[in-house]
Specification:
The complex is a heterodimer of chains A (105) and B (500). Chain A is mainly α. Chain A has a single domain, classed as Orthogonal Bundle (Helix Hairpins). Chain A has 3 helices and no strands. Chain A is elongated and about 55 Å long. Chain B has 500 residues and is mainly alpha-helical. Chain B has a domain of 223 residues. Chain B has a two-stranded antiparallel sheet. Classes of the chains: A mainly alpha (105), B mainly alpha (500). Chain A: InterPro entries: CPA3_antiporter_subunitC (IPR050601), NUOK/Mnh_C1-like (IPR039428).
């Protein structure tokens, strides 16, 4: 069985998602957590683009439309997260979520 | 055919709050009035929609006439109508409460903070309502993702509104949890599209077959929704986020926002993955629910602060909703379990909003919400304590409350299919709920000789809490109508209960 190019990209997307998830759980610095979420999101987008690439001869527009929407959502999410992180830093003086930290995320 | 019959009501229930979000941002002075008018308007549009669904069955509407796959379709059936009714009714009560809460000088500590809160509460709440209504009307799983994100953004910003250290930290954690949950869900959407080349719920319903792709999609979407829905043991973010928000926000987050994730899970489970789910996965979700009921109640029992107690009670009550999955396994009891859990959602929404509003009144009057120091509060705030007690009746599940009917139907489903373990759990959960409600009332009803100095609580704030708690109790007396509506529009799989 040969590895189709789209499959390679799809697996890379899965990999990015996993890397992002790991960093989201393992890293404590808020900026790193926000970046980790972006990496996770990029993983999903790459997966969607790989699916779109699958159809011949022209790419399937639906996943591409989803990725466009997803990018808009993810930009907004990052903006909100950065603003909140900044607020966390000004009120607590630190860039980590310290108190009662029973959380992984 | 009159205009009332043909109007696209499902569109209005999204457009109204969305435009109100912009208007309340532009006209800050009039914001409370715009907000109340919008929630009243959404009650009207939901009434129109309900009439249409009762009359002619489930509806479908193509926004802009584009249609699938590139356009957005909306659809409404019995379940979505009931959810919309819930958000509209809770919306009116919370808006009336909030109009007074944010204009009352004593309600918040500093005037600057108060002006800030008032300026941002209304637009965010309107966007929250728009996202929520859009979510309940979504006809495809990608649209569900987008509305879930819209809802999440508004909810997180509202949770951060208090601006205090604890609130900001809780909101940040909430945002991280919410975003990762949504990404899990989106990944599930992508996998389903990869496998079946559509995101439309109706088109997918017949297509999804057991297999590695369907399993991974289910696992990803379910874990995303479980973390967003604060299902034990992924509930860690909920109590601080809900308890540190301003009172109207706590009520909205606890009553409506967590239900959105559960609503999606319910739809996916019964409509999409009916052929994929196994008894083991259903039992697993049920066990998570059991954990939530026991752990949430136990935590609620020894919280020092009233608002934290109410928030942990939400964790416990969400556990009951998870019981629908194992109980609906048996074909004979599926419909009962399904109606029970939807009714539970409605009853809990009313009771929990009332309870949070009453708790807010008590905290406002006393200047703190330490349960141990609440003695004598009944003398000063009889209405709010009554609201708390009535909401407690529904949470415990005493007749004739909505919570009683919901738990009764759950018990029927459990006993009818011979699942005594789940039945015992439901009863134990009720006892625990009784214990934590009584714990508050015990302190509240203690008489004191010298009354403590108390802040005055505006009457609208007391009455809106009481009205909702009365509704929570009376829901038990008008159960037939909603259950009938639910049946008439229920997903097809409910009429032919053959799924295992």
């Amino acid at each position: 069985m040969t590895l189709e190019p789209y499959l390679l990209y799809a697996l890379a997307g899965v990999g990015l998602f996993a890397i992002g998830l790991y960093a989201l759980i393992a890293r404590t610095h808020l900026l790193r957590k926000i970046l980790a979420l972006n990496v996770m999101g990029t993983g999903v987008f790459l997966f969607l683009i790989a699916i779109a690439y699958r159809s011949e001869p022209v790419a399937d527009p639906v996943p591409q439309a989803m990725v466009l929407t997803g990018i808009v959502v993810s930009v907004c999410a990052t903006g909100l997260a950065l603003a909140l992180a900044h607020r966390v830093q000004t009120t607590t003086g630190r860039m980590v979520l310290a108190e009662n930290d029973e959380s992984g995320a | 055919m009159t205009l009332w019959d043909t109007a696209p009501w499902l569109l209005w229930s999204i457009v109204l709050p969305l435009s109100a979000g912009i208007l309340t941002f532009l006209f800050r002075r009039a914001a409370p009035w715009i907000g109340i008018a919008t929630t009243l308007g959404s009650v009207v549009s939901v009434a129109g929609l309900a009439a249409q669904v009762v009359h002619s069955g489930p509806l479908r509407y193509s926004v802009g006439g584009w249609g699938v796959p590139l356009g957005i379709d909306l659809r409404a059936d019995g379940l979505s109508v009931l959810m919309l009714v819930m958000s509209a009714v809770i919306g009116v009560a919370v808006s009336v409460y909030a109009a007074r809460y944010f204009s009352d000088a004593d309600a918040t500590d500093e005037r600057a903070v108060q002006a800030h809160q008032r300026a941002y509460f209304w637009p965010l709440w309107m966007f929250l309502l728009a996202g929520l209504n859009g979510l309940f009307l979504a006809a495809d799983i990608f649209h569900l993702y987008v509305t879930l994100e819209l809802l999440g953004f508004a909810a997180v910003s509202l949770a951060a509104l208090a601006g205090k250290r604890a609130a900001v930290v809780a909101a940040m954690r909430y945002l991280l949890v919410s975003l990762s949950g949504s990404l899990f869900f989106l990944f599930g959407v992508a996998i389903l599209y990869a496998a079946y080349a559509t995101v439309d719920l109706t088109a997918l319903a017949g297509k999804v077959q057991p297999g590695p792709l369907a399993w991974s999609a289910l696992a990803l979407m379910a874990s995303g929704l479980l973390i967003k829905g604060a299902v034990f043991p992924l509930h860690f973010w909920l109590p601080p986020a809900h308890a540190n928000a301003p009172t109207p926000v706590s009520a909205l987050l606890s009553a409506l926002v967590v239900k959105a994730s559960f609503y999606i899970l319910l739809r996916l489970w019964f409509e999409l993955f009916g052929a994929v789910v196994t008894p083991a996965t259903a039992t697993f979700l049920g066990l998570l629910g059991a954990g939530a009921i026991l752990w949430g109640s136990a935590q609620a029992l020894h919280q020092p602060r009233l608002k934290l107690l109410v928030a942990y009670s939400t964790v416990a009550q969400l556990g009951y909703l998870m019981l629908v999955f194992p109980l609906a396994q048996n074909a004979g009891s599926a419909l009962t379990a399904w109606s029970a859990c939807v009714y539970f959602v409605l009853a809990h929404a009313c009771a929990k909003t009332a309870m949070f509003l009453a708790a807010g009144n008590i905290a406002h009057a006393a200047g703190h919400d330490r349960i141990a120091d609440l003695d004598g509060i009944t003398q000063a705030l009889p209405l709010s304590v009554a609201a708390f007690a009535l909401a407690g009746i529904s949470l415990i599940g005493l007749p004739p409350s909505g919570g009683f009917i919901a738990k009764w139907m759950l018990l029927q489903a459990a006993i009818g299919s011979g699942k005594w373990g789940w039945a015992t759990l439901i009863l134990v959960g009720s006892l625990l709920a009784a214990a934590y409600v009584m714990r508050v009332l015990w302190h509240a009803f203690t008489q004191v000789e010298v009354a403590r100095p108390l802040h005055r609580v505006p009457r609208t704030m007391e009455w809106s809490a009481l009205a909702l708690s009365l509704l929570a109790v009376l829901l038990g007396l008008m159960a037939a109508r909603p259950v009938e509506l639910l049946r008439s529009g229920a997903p097809v799989s409910m009429h032919a209960p053959g799924q295992t």
